[in-house]
Amino acid sequence: MKFVEELVVEEFLPTFRSLLAEALRERGLTQIEVADQLGISQSAVSKYVHGDVARNEAIMETDRVRELVDRLADGLATGEMTTAEALIEAEICIRELERGGVLADLHAEAVPEIDAYDGEFAIHDPDSRLREANRARASVRRGLRILQNTPGFPRRIPAVGSNLVECLPDAETIDDVVGVPGRLLSIRGQLTVPGEPEFGVSQHVASVLLAARAAGSDARATLNVSYDEQLVETLTDEGQVAVEFDAEADLDTAIETALSEQPDASVLYQTGGYGVEPVLYILGSDAPAVATTVRDLDD
């Protein structure tokens, strides 16, 4: 009797760790930094990098594994992904490969009786909410990085501040929307990000996104910036579809009315009201896409 978990320890982990250590070294990390990222000793990193650890060829040649290694190496090397997020992604990959990939094949080879069993071997949900939540946080971090490298963005931040938010696929409340705690502010012409992305920290901007989705939009992210007529024209010239909503009406009703007139709108704006600052909201598929739209305004 051989459990699939034994194959994970004996075959997958040495192969995966050696590939990831190699990829991180190629991206300029030192052996000490790689050891810290992988939670292993520096001597173990040396063995992985120098090929002193046996690797499973079938696992090495699996596209899913190679893609994961490249994505994790990029994320860890740039700081766009935490070690916890990398671990979750690796765990999900393992469960997928156990269910119907190379690990399932290796298990069947090790225990031929498995072939005679016509059942399911999935014991974990690869589409878990935890995974989606970590992906959303990582996505907002990438979007913020784009904004931090957009010199013209601070001047577009309204007096009330900006926020960049992204929601889960099945979002219903602001607790399902990740954003920046507090607000994005311009201080002496520099963008200030007060903290790491969290769920449930954005009230108004998250509410705009949820209202748009409730009205039929498939957007997963939005960013608010200062409104001006020229900006609307520029965005329209770039292929965006803009629609105005009533700043003084109930938010859900106002956005539903606006989108009923322009269902494919990717830009929502209001021109102000009593005690209400004019603001424009850019909608998009994810946080980096929205941030890129803003960055491209200055190109």
CATH architecture of the largest domain: 3-Layer(aba) Sandwich
CATH level 4 superfamily of the largest domain = Class II aldolase/adducin N-terminal domain
Q: Alpha-carbon distance between the termini?
A: 62 Å
Strand order of the largest sheet: 5-2-1-6-9-8-7
Radius of gyration: 23 Å
Strand content bin: 5-15%
Q: Write the element-wise H/E pattern from the N-terminal end onward.
A: HHHHHHHHEEEEEHEHEHEEH
**Average pLDDT:** 90
| Strand segment tally | 9
Structural class: alpha+beta
Q: Largest sheet at a glance?
A: 7 strands, mixed
CATH topology of the largest domain: L-fuculose-1-phosphate Aldolase
Fraction of residues in H or I helices: 40-55%
Low-confidence stretches: 117-126
The oligomeric state of the chains shown is single chain
Name of the top-level CATH class of the largest domain: Alpha Beta
Discrete helix count? 12
Domain HTH cro/C1-type: 20-51
Pfam families: HTH_3, ThiN
Protein name: Helix-turn-helix domain-containing protein
GO molecular function, one term: DNA binding
Tags for this model:
299 residues, alpha+beta, L-fuculose-1-phosphate Aldolase, 2 domains, 7-stranded mixed beta sheet, two-stranded antiparallel sheet, Lambda_DNA-bd_dom_sf, Helix-turn-helix domain-containing protein, DNA binding, Cro/C1-type_HTH, ThiN
